[in-house]
Amino acid sequence: MSRNFDYLGDVEVFLAVMEHGSFTSAAAALSTTASVLSRAIGRLEARLGQQLMRRTTRRIGLTDAGQRYLEQARGAFGLLREAEQEAQSQSAALSGRVRISAPTTFGHFRLPALLKPFLAQNPEVRLELNITNRNVDLVAEGFDMAIRLGNLPDSGLVARKLEDAPLRLVAAPDYLKRAGVPRNLEELAQHVCLPFVLPRTGKLGAWSFRIGGEDLEWQPRSVLEVSDDVLGTVSMAEQGIGICQTYDFIARERLASGRLVELLPELSGRTRPFSLVYAPHRHQSAAARALISALVSDVLSTSLLHKCTDDVEHGIKSPSRYSPFC
């Protein structure tokens, strides 16, 4: 069997020269001489039938063909590195640091249960969790990944949908005893609502309902507005101050214990998406890739389990129609 890629050493030389900016610097890094590297580049250009570099006494430039070859060669060697690390990870314990950022809602109520089995299975991985409602700059701030809420703009990041989280309208029994139970949106407008100030716009966030199969964005008004941390609306509602809209994964335990009561369930059905994002051009460690895989698969399993439980409670036997993922 003939060797089809016995020239890869020359390709590595080409990449090294472009990375270091000169034959002299690349030769020092590779513990060889500039003339040896120049011959390797010459062999590569002869094989390809294309001039890759423009050499002057002061600098090295790339031809158009050289620029395209550089980008493709970098990608190919990146895939080889990933394949090598993947193979090594099968026989070696995962290790290293992984940095992840998450909003307060997901960071407090969803992420801990998802991270627990991953950390138990990978004790050598050091996880740094940043819980904030600010969208961090993944590359500039050195994060491997982040969890984002809402429909994501075309930012160039890779996005993996985690779940579409159902919304619930809730209040404490004490508040309802004092103020009464709203029977429709007109009556809801007369109650003490607990809206959240959106950090990006400074405006009150709308509440999402579904009426007769149509989606509605309803604007709550109140004398009490919560900013920075949306979980404050839940805390206020739990103390009987007013009504809030929050995620099912936050309300579920409070509803079961009776600390909160769901209102206007006939208007429910709306969800908001949570996604895991990471930079496509940043090389992910084996530990980071394993965490991405674990989060995506574990959220799916947990979401389906919760849906099965809800369906049984409501007399629905088959949960197959439910899919929280794209």
From TrEMBL:
Organism for this UniProt entry: Duganella vulcania
UniProt protein name: LysR family transcriptional regulator
Keyword Transcription regulation carried by entry: yes
Keywords: DNA-binding, Transcription, Transcription regulation
GO molecular function, one term: DNA binding
All residue ranges annotated as the HTH lysR-type domain in the record: 6-63
Lineage: superkingdom: Bacteria
Family, similarity comment: Belongs to the LysR transcriptional regulatory family.
